[in-house]
Amino acid sequence: MMAQENVFLFVPNLLGYLRVILAIAAFALIMKHPGLAAFLYFLSSFLDALDGHLARSFSQCSKFGATFDMLIDRCGTMCLLIVLAVIYSDYFLVFQFLCTLDIASHWLHMYSSLTKGETSHKSTDVTAHPLLRLYYTKTVLFIVCSGNELFFIVLYLLNFYEGPELPLGQFSIGLWRLCAYLFLPICVLKQVVSVIQMIGAAQQIAAIDLQERHK
């Protein structure tokens, strides 16, 4: 008789628990040890790129894993945005908006995907916005999500120091500030995608409502 599987102990889900531990450690240190906190947070975020590969390699894809993975991502980003709202209090409303947009967009998209019976929230059909279809290709998804997280991380680090000084001709610039300038366009693109995703998901849910009312 085949032993019953335990979804909670699937390899990609074990990696998810490690990500949670790393994130908790990062936020426990975030106000006093910026370098270590930033490293732990980055490591937790980076490991997100491995769980999907592990799930496919071990044939351990699961709805719990997909939901758990998104929760880790959203909660981690939300907590970091709260920290940024505190240390950059003049822009408190901006970070509140970014936090709200991130949660609302992904929640609506996940709910829409489940309602339509899709196996993954990363699946998009031909009716989706072209930018959204491009965003959910593996390479673009990795670049945009990584760039967005890195922008928030270097913004956090800039509150403490500029980073190693880099010479640029007659001028010089701190590494963290240079990275912030480089990653800012990616962060803006991520917010644009979130708005498109939120509107598209809301329209799809409303369309399903109309179909059910006509039955």
Overall mean pLDDT score?
Answer: 91
The main β sheet shows up as: 2 strands, antiparallel
Q: Shape from CA axes?
A: globular
Query: What's the CATH class label?
Result: Mainly Alpha
N-to-C order of helices and strands: HHHHHHHEEH
- CATH fold description: Four Helix Bundle (Hemerythrin (Met), subunit A)
Domain unit count: 1
Report the uncertain regions: none
Strand order of the largest sheet: 1-2
Keywords:
two-stranded antiparallel sheet; 73% helix; mainly alpha; 215 residues
Q: How would you explain this protein's 3D organization?
A:
A two-stranded antiparallel sheet has the order 1-2. Helices cover 73% and strands 4% of the residues. By secondary structure, the protein is mainly alpha-helical. The protein has a single domain, classed as CDP-alcohol phosphotransferase transmembrane (TM) domain (Four Helix Bundle (Hemerythrin (Met), subunit A), Up-down Bundle), CATH 1.20.120.1760. The protein has 8 helices and 2 strands; from the N terminus they run H-H-H-H-H-H-H-E-E-H. The model has no long low-confidence stretch (mean pLDDT 91). A hairpin with a 2-residue loop joins strand 1 and strand 2.
